[in-house]
Amino acid sequence: MVEKFLKKIIAQNHEDLRVISALCSGAKIKQSEIKYLRENKIFLISLERDNKEKFDSKDKINSILKFEFIEKSKSKNIDQNNDKNILELLAIDLFKKEKRFEIVLLFSNNGIINLEAEVIEIELDNIEKVNDKN
Q1: What is the pLDDT of residues 96-109, one digit of tens each?
Q2: How far is Cα 29 from Cα 87, in angstroms, rounded to an integer?
Q3: Which of 2, 34, 62, 84 has its Cα between 20 and 30 A from that of 77?
Q4: DSSP H or E run through 131
Q5: Domain, as residue range, for 12
Protein backbone atom coordinates (compact mmCIF):
# COMPACT_ATOMS: atom_id res chain seq x y z
CA MET A 1 0.00 0.00 0.00
CA VAL A 2 1.38 3.37 -0.98
CA GLU A 3 -0.06 6.67 0.27
CA LYS A 4 0.82 10.04 -1.20
CA PHE A 5 1.97 12.77 1.18
CA LEU A 6 1.70 16.49 0.70
CA LYS A 7 4.15 17.33 3.46
CA LYS A 8 7.11 19.68 3.07
CA ILE A 9 9.36 21.27 5.68
CA ILE A 10 11.48 24.27 4.75
CA ALA A 11 14.51 25.34 6.78
CA GLN A 12 15.87 28.86 6.51
CA ASN A 13 17.74 29.03 9.82
CA HIS A 14 19.57 26.88 12.36
CA GLU A 15 16.45 26.09 14.43
CA ASP A 16 14.50 24.93 11.36
CA LEU A 17 17.42 22.74 10.30
CA ARG A 18 17.40 21.02 13.71
CA VAL A 19 13.89 19.77 12.99
CA ILE A 20 14.92 18.38 9.59
CA SER A 21 18.05 16.83 11.12
CA ALA A 22 15.99 15.08 13.82
CA LEU A 23 13.48 13.76 11.28
CA CYS A 24 16.26 12.45 9.00
CA SER A 25 18.47 10.96 11.70
CA GLY A 26 18.96 7.27 10.94
CA ALA A 27 17.80 7.62 7.32
CA LYS A 28 19.22 5.22 4.74
CA ILE A 29 20.64 6.72 1.55
CA LYS A 30 21.81 4.91 -1.56
CA GLN A 31 24.98 6.68 -2.58
CA SER A 32 23.81 6.65 -6.20
CA GLU A 33 20.85 8.83 -5.13
CA ILE A 34 22.98 11.79 -4.07
CA LYS A 35 23.26 14.41 -6.82
CA TYR A 36 24.97 17.79 -7.03
CA LEU A 37 23.63 19.95 -9.86
CA ARG A 38 26.49 22.45 -9.91
CA GLU A 39 25.05 24.76 -12.60
CA ASN A 40 21.71 24.98 -10.76
CA LYS A 41 23.41 25.25 -7.34
CA ILE A 42 21.21 22.43 -6.03
CA PHE A 43 22.24 19.40 -3.97
CA LEU A 44 19.68 16.55 -3.81
CA ILE A 45 19.47 13.47 -1.62
CA SER A 46 16.80 10.78 -1.91
CA LEU A 47 16.42 8.95 1.40
CA GLU A 48 14.30 6.44 3.27
CA ARG A 49 13.57 7.50 6.83
CA ASP A 50 11.49 6.39 9.78
CA ASN A 51 8.13 8.09 10.26
CA LYS A 52 9.04 10.04 13.39
CA GLU A 53 5.99 12.27 13.03
CA LYS A 54 3.76 9.47 14.39
CA PHE A 55 4.53 8.07 17.83
CA ASP A 56 5.49 4.37 17.81
CA SER A 57 5.22 4.08 14.01
CA LYS A 58 7.34 1.53 12.18
CA ASP A 59 6.49 3.00 8.77
CA LYS A 60 9.16 4.26 6.40
CA ILE A 61 8.90 7.44 4.34
CA ASN A 62 10.72 8.18 1.09
CA SER A 63 11.83 11.80 1.12
CA ILE A 64 13.91 14.23 -0.88
CA LEU A 65 16.32 16.60 0.84
CA LYS A 66 16.96 19.61 -1.38
CA PHE A 67 19.69 22.12 -0.59
CA GLU A 68 19.64 25.30 -2.70
CA PHE A 69 22.24 28.04 -3.38
CA ILE A 70 25.10 25.53 -2.97
CA GLU A 71 28.45 26.88 -4.16
CA LYS A 72 30.67 23.88 -3.31
CA SER A 73 30.36 20.26 -2.25
CA LYS A 74 33.10 18.18 -0.63
CA SER A 75 33.03 14.72 0.89
CA LYS A 76 35.32 12.82 3.22
CA ASN A 77 35.46 9.07 3.98
CA ILE A 78 32.87 8.28 1.27
CA ASP A 79 34.00 6.06 -1.60
CA GLN A 80 32.89 7.99 -4.70
CA ASN A 81 33.35 4.90 -6.90
CA ASN A 82 30.89 2.74 -4.95
CA ASP A 83 27.39 3.64 -6.18
CA LYS A 84 25.88 0.65 -4.36
CA ASN A 85 27.04 1.92 -0.97
CA ILE A 86 24.27 2.57 1.58
CA LEU A 87 24.92 5.52 3.90
CA GLU A 88 23.21 6.17 7.22
CA LEU A 89 22.62 9.86 7.95
CA LEU A 90 23.26 10.70 11.60
CA ALA A 91 22.81 14.48 11.68
CA ILE A 92 22.86 17.72 9.72
CA ASP A 93 24.57 20.75 11.23
CA LEU A 94 25.14 24.34 10.18
CA PHE A 95 28.05 26.74 10.71
CA LYS A 96 28.54 30.35 9.63
CA LYS A 97 31.91 31.08 8.02
CA GLU A 98 32.37 34.77 7.27
CA LYS A 99 29.57 35.62 4.80
CA ARG A 100 28.78 32.01 3.86
CA PHE A 101 27.23 28.99 5.52
CA GLU A 102 28.70 25.51 5.83
CA ILE A 103 26.17 22.70 6.00
CA VAL A 104 27.65 19.47 7.35
CA LEU A 105 26.00 16.09 6.79
CA LEU A 106 27.37 13.47 9.18
CA PHE A 107 27.09 9.78 8.30
CA SER A 108 27.91 6.55 10.12
CA ASN A 109 31.46 5.23 9.53
CA ASN A 110 32.81 8.82 9.76
CA GLY A 111 31.43 9.87 6.36
CA ILE A 112 31.00 13.61 5.90
CA ILE A 113 29.58 15.85 3.16
CA ASN A 114 30.28 19.60 3.44
CA LEU A 115 28.14 22.02 1.46
CA GLU A 116 29.02 25.69 1.12
CA ALA A 117 25.97 27.91 0.64
CA GLU A 118 25.16 31.56 0.07
CA VAL A 119 21.91 31.33 2.05
CA ILE A 120 20.11 28.65 4.00
CA GLU A 121 17.33 27.13 1.89
CA ILE A 122 16.70 23.47 2.66
CA GLU A 123 13.57 21.45 1.94
CA LEU A 124 12.51 18.06 3.24
CA ASP A 125 9.81 16.85 0.89
CA ASN A 126 8.01 13.57 1.59
CA ILE A 127 7.16 11.56 -1.49
CA GLU A 128 5.36 8.44 -0.38
CA LYS A 129 4.93 6.07 2.50
CA VAL A 130 6.45 2.59 2.12
CA ASN A 131 4.65 -0.17 3.97
CA ASP A 132 7.07 -2.77 5.39
CA LYS A 133 4.38 -5.47 5.35
CA ASN A 134 4.49 -5.91 1.55
Answers
A1: 988 899 999 999 99
A2: 5
A3: 62
A4: none
A5: 2-130
